[in-house]
Amino acid sequence: MMLLPIKVACGAVVITILIASVTNIAVAFCFWFFPWISLSIFLSSEVSFSLWWWIFHSPSLASQPDIHAPKHHDPEKAFSRFEALAKTSRLLAHKSYRKTGAISEEPPPVDIKRFLSWWFSGVDFSSVKRGNVAELFAYAFHYKTIAMMEQDGLGHLPMQMVERLEKATGNSLSLGYQEGLKPMFHLWEPLRCHPRPLTFYLLMELLSLWAHAVLVLVMRYKVHNMPKLVSTPSLACTSQEIPLAKLERVESSDVANANRRTPMPPKGGLIRGSTDRPFSLGVYTFGSPEGGWGSRPASGGLRAEGIKQRPQVVDCRDDHDMQPSRASSSPLHNAGLQHDEASSLLSLPPTARASKQKDSVGLCISSSSGVTSLATAGSSSCREPPILMLHGVGFGLMSYLPLAARLASTGRPVICMKIRHISMQLTRYIPMACEVAEDVIQVIDSLGVEQVSVVAHSYGTFVASVLAQRHGHRLHSACLIDPVCFGVFMPNLLGNFVYRHSHQLKGTGPMDWLMCFISRDVHVASTFGRRFYWSDVNLWADDLPKKCLVVLSGRDDLIHVEEVRCVINCCTSARLLYHPDHMHAGCLLDAKWQDKIVSEIVDLLGANKKH
């Protein structure tokens, strides 16, 4: 079924008029006939809500667990991957200089001087001492203070990391510890949020109702009911396996200085044991696979084997010339460095994949929950996976209705997820991205889907990253738009989304003000300030799905675009679409660019189709 944009627009206008009319009539009726009663109810409701917000809601979302760290975290593996990327950066720069006699125009994947400067609020690199960087690494890779690591007998590890980074990048840091210089401790600092009135949240519910009506009544999406509660384990960190070679004690005056000056992370509410949490997703589906939703038992599925190819780049400098072209030149090529040579630096042992087999006659064999399903490799279940759409932070699905319509117009089944806690709506529980990913798996299992093709934007790419790392065999392909999941260890996201102040927005555009307004909602602030662990959501090159499309916006300040572009070109086989003039989320306002993205998604889905 093809959904014409004009039909969707007309339907949305009709629904808007109906909802606005009913709302205005109801409000006018109350205040016209019962003015004092209505005013009293309104004021008392706002006052009561404000008290509830300050006394219960905000403190609950701002509370911290005893151990503020992700479960099953491996600090050594995370740092080794970061170290490998730093080595790749140095190798690219060295080979480019040796071959051309000049530094490459493309920046390296990690500019360590800018990296450290931004983490310390933009101070000059010369002001950052070894003790300060050790303090940063204790927080970033161990989620602890220097004092906490000393108590565990691991106080020497942060300084060892500093030495390894110096060796990998060829940069030397000054000895000592700079007083008063602190990195962005976003997990331990007070939430940066502003209270909102009850009227605001009622308006957001009204906008959510409007988006629901457009999806269901105009676009013919269907709502799927899911369980209201799911069981979740505690946030307590499991014991970390540290190689014995790393446990040799190294005395350092830099670490000792940092140890005395680093504050302990604040303590708040406790999260212990296994608890029931609210299900984090609303589920809409369009169309259905052959046989309907749930007609096949949920299974592990097979990860589609994509064709290994060089990156494809689209530079949208002309609206009339947006055809993809094969990248004829890249920093890797200019530097005389082979693709496999750079990739090998980043190819650490990948996340364990679910077992999968293919028999001698081409049947896909997979099992889950003791049920085995068989499907020929060329059948609909393997050839035409549904499209799974994951939205970003903001106004929920309302901003993504045009994209949802375009995805539905492809004729493919579509699963559209609504993530409430990043939609500025009241909710009592803020899930982590890994919990949202587990809810996604529960949804596709309940729908009987073996594999999905993920289309994710902004925050949705965090969820897609977790899916790729932990459930890669369930992903047929992925389209990552404005992918904040790349280089999450870089300071761009925190500095320009969490830490940016309104006085820094003078002279900027309305989108910057809107982004600042969204970031100060208590639910969004809690998402990034309490329930956000970069090591869980960062997508490394070796975890990228084999069939992948990456869409970058040239003016996106939540990531360092050129560094991400360099990594995609040098270290992956992903396709790349690049628009030099878009800001973050600019694609949501550009119909032509959305058409191009959807066209590339369809091409990606059919890349390995057998005829």
UniProtKB/TrEMBL annotation:
<protein>
    <recommendedName>
        <fullName>AB hydrolase-1 domain-containing protein</fullName>
    </recommendedName>
</protein>
<feature type="region of interest" description="Disordered">
    <location>
        <begin position="310"/>
        <end position="335"/>
    </location>
</feature>
<keyword id="KW-0472">Membrane</keyword>
<keyword id="KW-1133">Transmembrane helix</keyword>
<dbReference type="InterPro" id="IPR000073">
    <property type="entry name" value="AB_hydrolase_1"/>
</dbReference>
<feature type="domain" description="AB hydrolase-1">
    <location>
        <begin position="385"/>
        <end position="486"/>
    </location>
</feature>
<dbReference type="InterPro" id="IPR029058">
    <property type="entry name" value="AB_hydrolase_fold"/>
</dbReference>
<feature type="transmembrane region" description="Helical">
    <location>
        <begin position="6"/>
        <end position="29"/>
    </location>
</feature>
<dbReference type="Pfam" id="PF00561">
    <property type="entry name" value="Abhydrolase_1"/>
</dbReference>
<keyword id="KW-0812">Transmembrane</keyword>
<feature type="region of interest" description="Disordered">
    <location>
        <begin position="253"/>
        <end position="275"/>
    </location>
</feature>
